[in-house]
Structures are given as structure tokens and as C-alpha cells.
Amino acid sequence: MSISEVSVVDRIKGIVKQSLLIDRLELEDITAEEITDDMILFGEGLGLDSVEAFEVMVGMEELFGVMVEDIPAEELKRHLTNVQSISELILLKHTKGIG
């Protein structure tokens, strides 16, 4: 990953933490700084559920133009593991073309 890609991923991570997770899911007991890049989001870790997973996917489309319906369920589950994996998916979708 180039330096410019690292910078882009860092910006994406910030948006994922604040806008996609905290603001969209109305998480009140945690700050963006407390969400680490590798924190598990669903089940253990942050403790999000399947309804919130759906909200994350809708938010990815609204905030980043990233559509996930063409991604097989098991692969999508891996992409939604943590902030790092979500950010990498967003970058991948943008470098290959939106959607």
C-alpha cells in the first residue's frame, strides 16, 4: 500500500468510526478514539447486532457509494469484522470502481 493509500485509508477509518458507527448507530457510550481499527464490531467487542450490521451496509452505500449486494455472505461477513476491514473494502471498491 502506498503512502497516499495509507492516508486515504486513515481518512476512511475516521469517517467509519464517527459517521458510520457512532453517529449512524447512535452509539452514546463510546467515542471514535475508543474504537480501535481491529476491534471486533459484532458479537464480542463492540457488541453490534444484525440490525446494526444492516445499518452499516446501508451507511456504506450512502456515505461512500459502496454497494455490497454482489458480495457473497461469508465474504461480506469478513469485510464487516472491524474498522480496518470495512475501510479496506471501501478503498477496494473505489479503486476497482464504485459499486
From TrEMBL:
Q: Which residues does the UniProt record annotate as the domain Carrier?
A: 27-90
What Gene3D superfamilies does the record tag this protein with? ACP-like
Which Pfam families does the UniProt entry name for this protein?
A: PP-binding
InterPro entries reported in the protein's UniProt record: ACP-like_sf, PP-bd_ACP
- The protein, known as: Acyl carrier protein
Q: Which organism is it from?
A: Paenibacillus oenotherae
The opening ranks of the lineage are:
Bacteria, Bacillati, Bacillota, Bacilli, Bacillales
